[in-house]
């Protein structure tokens, strides 16, 4: 069994991808995707800004809720762009063990 399937983000991705051909009347994901890439990106940006506001204000519960909104809208953006969660996990795995300080220094050389 693919253990990634147990992950809530993978299940959410599978649900959103299954909504690509769903009715915009019945599915929020289908409605958002039917409105196009600019709208999807705009919604992601709005949710990210709401996260920033709650983080700065120190509202832990609100930050948890806004973080879930950000992840949902990020997943809609991946589906629209043809990106799979595995692509992101692979990039994160590639970075494992490389300090961000070292990586930044190597870019400026
Ligand atoms: N995680 C979420 C999720 N998070 C937030 N939202 C919706 O995102 C919407 C955000 O509302 P807004 O008013 O900000 O956005 P909007 O309706 O696009 O409005 P405008 O910006 O156009 O004014 C709300 O309707 C929320 O319910 C979500 N909708 C769906 N999911 C997941 O996606 C699954 C599939 O949902 P459907 O596609 O609706 O079947 C669900 O079972 C959930 O697991």
Structure description:
This protein is an all-alpha fold and 109 residues long. The chain has one domain (3-107): Orthogonal Bundle (Helix Hairpins). Helices cover 73% and strands 0% of the residues. The chain has helices spanning 8-18, 28-34, 37-57, 60-81, 85-95, 100-107. The N and C termini lie far apart (44 Å). Phosphoribosyl ATP is lined by residues 12, 15, 19, 27-30, 32, 43, 69, 72. The site of phosphoribosyl ATP (PRT) has 11 residues, from helix 1, helix 2 and helix 4.
Unreliable stretches (pLDDT < 50, length at least 5) are none
Helix content: over 70%
Computed Rg: 17 Å
CATH level-1 class: Mainly Alpha
> Could you say which structural class the secondary elements and strand pairing correspond to?
mainly alpha
Strand-residue fraction?
A: under 5%
**Number of separate helices:** 6
Number of domains: 1
For this structure, the CATH topology is: Helix Hairpins
- What would CATH call the architecture? Orthogonal Bundle
EC number: 3.6.1.31
Pathway: Amino-acid biosynthesis; L-histidine biosynthesis; L-histidine from 5-phospho-alpha-D-ribose 1-diphosphate: step 2/9
Protein name: Phosphoribosyl-ATP pyrophosphatase
Subcellular location: Cytoplasm
List keywords for this structure.
109 residues, Helix Hairpins, globular, binds phosphoribosyl ATP, 73% helix, mainly alpha
Summarize the structure.
The chain is an all-alpha fold and 109 residues long. It is built from six helices and no strands.
